[in-house]
Design brief:
Blueprint lengths: L11 E2 L9 H5 L10 H18 L5 E7 L2 H12 L6 E5 L2 H12 L4 E5 L8 H10 L5 E5 L1 E2 L4 E2 L2 H10 L3 E5 L11 H4 L3 E5 L10 E7 H4 L13 H10 L10 H17 L2 H21 L15 E5 L8 H10 L2 E2 L1 E2 L7 E5 L6 H14 L4
Parallel strand pairs: 1-12, 3-4, 3-5, 5-8, 8-9
Antiparallel strand pairs: 2-10, 6-7, 9-10, 11-14, 13-14
Bound molecules: pyridoxal-5'-phosphate.
Length: 370
């Protein structure tokens, strides 16, 4: 293993977050911050401005940070955006799409789900038809990179249809934002949601939404939840110069500021995307050479996380394989697909092509069943 890139950790996390972070990101947490002091609030405001700039080259977008893991921010965005007499259409093809539907169900929100199955992309004709026929629908939500499988959904094509129909568009870009170039203006997205511990390579503790300002402005009083009210959180941050409504994850925020600076130093989202794409290429080519096959066809596959079929061998046991890889410095991820027997390997985080090459060597050594 290359010691230079070895994070201060006995192994790399090849998972979709929390993931391997750099030493400076971890070190940034070695200080205590006062939540209402200017030093800290300036950091928050700087993060907010940077996130909005990452999400679109156009003005007219703003960002809100929210305590909790990524799901809290998805729930906050849905609760804040969809009015009491609104109706949400969810395009689902995996666990995270299903979770959006579950969120709607729990808050008693009128909703409908178009489920294309875990290995298919959303059916755009069906989307068009549904929007034509069900005029009660006001909002449409989809996951960009479905982390269940690694599927990359066509958010731009979907956005075109959603905007043609005049609906509000919400994208869960949790596992892609900062790692795959996108511009909310091109997508027609009104809200995108992500979190600290994915492609921006921070540590877990908060999520965020970037929202079209004119849309968020209309959301006052809609949220069914007090603590997850993104409109009120936004107002507080706007009017009190970066103050959060309730105790904020100060250390995590400071680490995130460092992670954003490192994203910029690396050359921005396009350069990070190129690194992830190269990581992914080395991963898939290497695994295929060793006899593994991917769940998804290449044209559906994101350069973020990849599902591989478990070997069809009587002696193969995922946990034993996992243990051998962990001993060699790599932690992988079990599968989550219901209809297939898979495991997953992520290639995002503070990991580099030489680390992915080392991984392939470790996989070869760990194939005890051969
Ligand atoms: C990680 C992730 C989430 C949020 O998961 P948390 O465990 O709540 O952080 C939501 N959607 C997608 C697509 C994700 O990858």
């Amino acid at each position: 293993m290359d010691a230079k890139n070895m994070p201060d950790n006995p192994y790399f996390l090849l998972t979709p977050g929390p993931l391997s972070t750099s030493k400076p990101v971890k070190s940034a947490m070695f200080r205590d911050w006062c939540t209402w002091d200017k030093d800290y609030n300036d950091i928050v405001q700087d993060i907010r401005a940077r996130l909005a700039a990452l999400a679109s080259r156009n003005n007219g977008y703003t960002s809100v940070l929210m305590q909790g893991s990524g799901t809290f921010s998805v729930e906050a965005a849905i609760s804040t955006a969809v009015p009491h007499d609104g109706k949400l259409l969810v395009l689902a093809n995996g666990h995270y799409g299903d979770r959006i539907a579950l969120i709607a169900q729990r808050m008693g929100l009128e909703h409908t789900v178009l489920d294309s199955g875990e290995v298919q992309r959303p059916d755009l004709d069906q989307l068009r038809q549904t929007l034509d026929q069900d005029t009660a629908i006001t909002h449409v939500a989809v996951v960009h990179c479905e982390t269940t499988t690694g599927m990359l959904n066509p958010v731009q094509e979907i956005g075109r249809i959603v905007k043609q129909a005049g609906k509000v568009y919400i994208v869960d870009a949790m596992s892609s934002f900062g790692g795959i170039p996108l511009d909310m203006a091109d997508l027609g997205a009104d809200f995108i949601v992500s979190s600290a511990n994915k492609c921006i390579q921070g540590v877990p503790g908060f999520g965020f939404a970037v929202a079209k300002k004119s849309e968020l402005e209309q959301c006052q009083g809609r949220s069914r939840s007090l603590s997850l009210d993104m409109h009120d959180q936004w107002q507080e941050m706007e009017n009190k110069n970066g103050k959060w409504r309730y105790t904020s994850p100060t250390h995590v925020v400071r680490a995130f500021a460092q992670a954003l600076a490192e994203l910029e130093d690396e050359g921005g989202v396009a350069t990070r995307f190129a690194r992830y794409t190269e990581n992914h290429r080395i991963l898939v080519e290497g695994m295929r050479e060793l006899g593994f096959s991917t769940l998804l066809p290449d044209e559906f596959q994101s350069p973020i996380i990849t599902s591989f079929s478990n070997p069809d061998h009587p002696d193969y046991d995922f946990m034993r394989f996992y243990g051998l890889l962990k001993e060699r410095g790599f932690v992988i991820y079990p599968g989550k697909v219901t209809g297939a027997n898979t495991f997953r390997i992520g290639n995002i985080g503070h990991v580099f092509p030489q680390d992915m090459r080392s991984l392939i060597g470790a996989v070869a050594e760990s194939m005890y069943w051969r």
